Amino acid sequence: MHFLLIGSLILASALPVAAEARVKNLILMIADGWGYNQIQALNYWQGVEQQSYERYETAIAVSTYSWDTLQSDRLGYNPAAAWSDFKYVLRKPTDSAAAATALACGVKTYDNAISVSPDSVRLETILERAEKAGKSTGVVTSVPFSHATSAAFAAHNVKRDDFIGIAYEMLERSGCEVIMGAGHPFYNDDNILIADNAKHDYRYIGWDLWERALKGEVGGDMDGDGDVDRWTLVQSKSEFRRLTVGDTPERALGIAQVHETLQCNRAGRPEPNDPQPPFTVPFNDGVPTLTDMTRAALNILDEDPDGLFLMVEGGAVDWANHRNQLGRMMEELSDFNSAVAAVEDWVNKRSNWDETLLIVTGDHETGYLWGPGSGEPANFEPLKYNGKYKMPQFHYYSDKHTNSLVPLFAKGAGSELLKLAANKNDPIRGAYLDNTDVGKAMFKLLESR
Ligand SMILES: [Zn+2]
């Protein structure tokens, strides 16, 4: 413990302050469970050299291990070991709760923790800090809104599975203006309304909150002025799309008409490692895309002269990787990439890169995706290109998370601070920093305004 404490103090003081940093708008986009090869796979399918974010001036790597990893391995991530032992990154990887807490709060914690410390003490999140600075804030995801990643920005809980407790805090106690995701109690994963009331599944929001949300009776005093600020509930694709332009409600709670994922869980899923291409099974028709939600969120939040904080999660990238379904993963990453493009478009039209910082990253890799023939002792085969709109040759070597470094791309105000903080070196991925350093850098950049 002593060693760790000293280590984190050194890291904190090693973060340089960017002199010109002035971050009015901070947008953090997290592809849950992505990695270098996931991006490569989609690039091969699309027949493109790179995604737009791969060309950002700040392109570094991030270590993702949790406090739990450190209990068994003091280093957390050892670059030399990671590339000399194929199995090294499979040991004790982080979960999404600890990884999101590291990004949201800049603190290592245990797996399952939602923005509480290893001693279960509440941690301030970057979203809460943005609220204190007077900004409008929101979280958007392609999986249930009360799931780990979005939860860690707007709630605190000793257990990520306490979805109803988390939903209660997000909706009744947080200062957010926008919360959007899946988790609808009345619909299945194919966007079909479940007629039998007894089969409605309230696990992600709870019966009481849902009933009150339908009546427009959910929402606490978000700005401390003594008045309650109620959520306007939106559900259908057309309702989400209507929010992308023009006048908007004060607070929007968007629950898409699917149970767990916008698209990833729909019928017709392939077997693990089956090369079923993306976009072969028709999409759920009645739900928004992550891109629609992102546009809607920005349109709601950008009225505030103090600026905004928005977290966008491509949550089902992880779900597809867990099931080793590369085609579904490509669909999810494709939507996430379109959401990044929508943010770039917003910055170019409604803001500018001198006042806005966009960070595009992941929370950890999932699936250990490499080319065929990879394995022990240290054989890392690349994916094999088969032509545009053809599945590359690939193999998933795990159905779990890994400790692999993940990429981070940043553009705009203060992005050079992240590059300066990446003072560790990986022989393959190059300069990297820890996920807690990303959180700490975001706090520093909001303060330095
Ligand atoms: Zn995750």
Provide structural commentary.
It contains 15 helices and 14 strands. The chain is α/β, with parallel strands linked by helices and 449 residues long. Strand 13 and strand 14 form a beta hairpin. Helix 11 (290-301) runs parallel beside helix 13 (326-350) and helix 12 packs antiparallel against helix 13. The structure holds zinc ion. The site of zinc ion has 7 residues, from strand 1, helix 5 and strand 8.
Tell me the layout of helices and strands:
Elements: H1 2-14, E1 25-33, H2 36-46, E2 58-63, H3 67-72, H4 79-84, H5 96-105, H6 126-132, E3 136-144, H7 148-154, H8 163-173, E4 178-182, H9 207-214, E5 232-234, H10 237-242, E6 252-255, H11 290-301, E7 308-314, H12 316-322, H13 326-350, E8 356-366, E9 369-370, E10 395-396, E11 401-402, E12 406-412, H14 415-421, E13 424-426, E14 430-434, H15 435-447
Parallel strand pairs: 1-7, 1-8, 2-14, 3-4, 3-7, 4-6, 5-6
Antiparallel strand pairs: 2-12, 8-11, 8-12, 9-10, 13-14
Bound molecules: zinc ion (ZN).
